[in-house]
Amino acid sequence: xxxxxIAFLVFSALILTACTYPALPKGESLQDVKESTNSSMTNExxxxxxxTQEQTDPLESLKETKAEESIAVEIKDYKFSPENFKVTPGAxxxxxxxxxxxxSLTSDEGSVDTGLINKDATITVKAPxxxxxxxxxxxPHPWMRGVMVVE
Length: 151
Ligand SMILES: [Cu+2]
What we know:
It is a single chain. By secondary structure, this protein is α/β, with parallel strands linked by helices. 32% of the residues lie in helices and 30% in strands. It is built from 4 helices and 7 strands. The protein has helices at residues 2-20, 30-40, 43-56, 58-62; strands spanning 68-76, 79-81, 84-97, 106-107, 122-126, 132-137, 145-150. Strands 1, 2, 3, 4, 5, 6 and 7 form a 7-stranded mixed beta sheet that branches. A hairpin with a 2-residue loop joins β1 (68-76) and β2. The radius of gyration is 19 Å and the shape is globular. Copper (II) ion binds at residues 103, 138, 140-141, 144.
């Protein structure tokens, strides 16, 4: 599936970037850090890094998960919990907001949208009928993200 490939590539690129650029110690240039990171890596470590990436891939981690007919998602401290989940087509998704600011759970393609949820309020929405990957975000805070797998 095309979108799945793209999502995986983007995710891998993010992980790679995060691994390649550790916090910079004072007085060292980025180039120095990069070189010392690379040279201190043994071949064994290099070979094992793709496996590490797979483990942190949300889609990979959901592979063996059974799709739920209903699921409760909590928003707290500007984070969805769970961030990534798997549901059946049309599953009931209950979203509760535990923060004092308003949040939403809104799929990027637009078919799932709780609208803004007040503090301690709960909104129920239905998962899409069509199986696939649905990335979602919070409308006011687009960096709050997650992925819903409909299967
Ligand atoms: Cu938000």
